[in-house]
């Protein structure tokens, strides 16, 4: 399992752009079973942050861009591979399963 990495927080925007590269070493990984999940969250000062969406990168992910990105990483191991990804919005059901949607109490 890779360590967690955190980007800078984008304040006061409903359309943040995360143009931050990051590097990791894949020498000791099982590259055929590798899977990376980038989680995009909102920032809440006084309550728990909520998951907005995710980006998946790896050989067997649903996203064609995520599969292509991983294929390019493996084919050029000594070079950085840059790729733009759109986040996959999480459905309400997925958020409920992950616990990122809070149920309101009846009064």
Folded structure, characterized:
With 107 residues, the protein is α+β, with helices and mostly antiparallel strands. It is 18% helix and 16% strand. It has two helices and three strands; from the N terminus they run E-E-H-E-H. It has helices at residues 64-75, 92-98, and strands at 35-41, 51-58, 88-89. A three-stranded antiparallel beta sheet has the order 1-2-3. The longest helix has 12 residues, at 64-75. The radius of gyration is 16 Å and the shape is elongated. The N and C termini lie far apart (43 Å). Mean pLDDT is 77; it is low at 100-107.
Keywords, please?
107 residues, alpha+beta, 3-stranded antiparallel sheet, 3 strands, disordered C terminus
Indicate the radius of gyration in whole angstroms.
Answer: 16 Å
The separation of the N and C termini measures 43 Å
SSE sequence, one letter per element: EEHEH
* Helix share bin: 10-25%
Topology diagram in text:
Elements: E1 35-41, E2 51-58, H1 64-75, E3 88-89, H2 92-98
Antiparallel strand pairs: 1-2, 2-3
Condensed summary:
The chain is an alpha+beta fold and 107 residues long.
């Amino acid at each position: 399992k890779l360590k967690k990495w955190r980007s800078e927080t984008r304040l006061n925007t409903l359309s943040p752009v995360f143009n931050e590269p990051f590097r990791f070493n894949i020498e000791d990984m099982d590259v055929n079973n590798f899977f990376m999940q980038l989680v995009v969250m909102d920032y809440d000062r006084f309550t728990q942050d909520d998951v907005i969406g995710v980006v998946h990168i790896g050989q067997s992910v649903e996203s064609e861009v995520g599969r292509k990105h991983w294929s390019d990483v493996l084919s050029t191991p000594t070079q950085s591979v840059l790729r733009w990804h759109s986040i996959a919005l999480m459905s309400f059901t997925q958020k409920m399963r992950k616990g990122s949607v809070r149920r309101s109490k009846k009064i």
